[in-house]
């Protein structure tokens, strides 16, 4: 699950046409960075859902980190200016033999996304497929990425 950071400020400062252009460019950059057999779609608002096939926990995290960097490398042109865009990523996996439903996976990815936002945005957070999310200790949060 991917959420463009502070997207509302782009709409507020440059208008909804500019916001739409940023969404399209972000989708294009991510689409160009994923493998042919992976899938990406707009999930709602400024959120995207990406399905990476054949990835274990480490590969899923690495792919998300690569996509995050792809989004931030070059500013996006808007009207007579350019803006930097970053994104927060929430990652989980469905490994063979694990019981899961698509809804459960989306819920886990969404939990990881909100963890990334709480920890400062423009980062990747990973939650393994399991019964409960580990508690978030905001006092001990750091710049390191949780895997």
Give the arrangement of secondary structure elements.
Blueprint (H helix, E strand, L loop, with lengths): L1 E3 L2 H8 L1 H18 L5 E6 L2 E5 L5 H16 L3 E3 L2 E3 L3 E5 L10 H17 L5 E3 L21
Parallel strand pairs: 6-7
Antiparallel strand pairs: 1-3, 1-6, 2-3, 4-5
Helix pairs in contact: 1-2, 2-3
Secondary structure tally, helices:
4
First CA to last CA: what distance? 15 Å
What structural class do the secondary elements suggest?
Answer: alpha+beta
How large is the share of residues in beta strands?
Answer: 15-25%
What is the helical fraction, as a range of percent?
A: 40-55%
Mean pLDDT: 87
- Name the shape in a single word: elongated
What would CATH call the homologous superfamily? Answer: Reverse transcriptase/Diguanylate cyclase domain
CATH class: Alpha Beta
In N-to-C order, the SSE pattern is EHHEEHEEEHE
Task: Describe this protein's structure.
The chain has 147 residues and is an alpha+beta fold. 40% of the residues lie in helices and 19% in strands. It is built from four helices and seven strands. The chain has helices spanning 7-14, 16-33, 57-72, 102-118, and strands at residues 2-4, 39-44, 47-51, 76-78, 81-83, 87-91, 124-126. The strands form two sheets. It has a five-stranded mixed β-sheet with strand order 2-3-1-6-7.
């Amino acid at each position: 699950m991917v959420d463009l950071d502070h997207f509302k400020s782009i709409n507020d400062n440059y208008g909804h046409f500019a916001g739409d252009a940023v969404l399209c460019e972000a989708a294009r950059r991510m689409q160009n960075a994923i493998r042919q057999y992976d899938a990406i779609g707009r999930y709602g608002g400024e959120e995207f859902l990406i399905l990476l096939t054949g990835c274990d926990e480490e590969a899923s995290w690495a792919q998300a980190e690569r996509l995050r960097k792809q989004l931030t490398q070059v500013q996006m042109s808007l009207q007579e200016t350019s803006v930097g865009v970053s994104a927060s990523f929430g990652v989980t996996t469905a490994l063979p033999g694990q019981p899961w439903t698509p809804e459960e996976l989306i819920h886990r990815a969404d939990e990881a996304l909100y963890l990334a936002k709480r920890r400062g945005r423009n980062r990747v957070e990973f939650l393994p497929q399991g019964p409960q999310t580990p508690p978030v200790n905001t006092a001990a949060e750091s710049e390191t990425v949780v895997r």
